[in-house]
Amino acid sequence: SVYSEMLQKELPHKILAIVTPQKQDLRFSSDRVFLIHTRRGIKDMEISRAISEQIGRLYFNAASSSTWDEWLNVSFVEYLRIIALKRQEISAFYQEIASKKLLSATLQPLWGFEVPEEISQYQYDRNMVLMQSKGVLLLHYLSERIGESKFLALCRAMIDQRIGTTDDFLILLQQETDTATAAWFKMLLKSA
Fold first, then answer.
1. What is the distance between the alpha carbons of residues 175 and 50, in angstroms, rounded to a whole number?
2. 38 or 177: which carries more pLDDT confidence?
């Protein structure tokens, strides 16, 4: 997969992806099987994106989905998907980044966003937009600051150490880069 190539980490087993047109928008995944139901007319690109997202979640899954730290799972998966685009078509990469900037412009800062115990579909969708746009944009800024190869090394260290909280991520970022970069990124999380 693109993830194993970029992260230089293989998954410990084979994965089976089953795409079926039976029920709309229902997805199931385990660590070995992805079952993706599609609707009529869905494009191969959308199916590929859904499979890529599920594979990415096998690498980035240490953060709890019941806290705002879930951005570590969702944002990293989405940003690595976009980095893969850059390797295929540079203009598509910059279109995705521009789209994330537009979506992020009116959103709250990522730091400490609310994840209620009883979450409505509206709040869930809003949080996903926040993580998939602002979170991705902040990771893009970080990658631009430290360089893509160092960013991918940071991703590998996150996976190896099972980083599941933002505080632990910031400690790792400081260890892998420097204090100024970690402080700068924390400021972005709190204010951008």
1. 33
2. 177
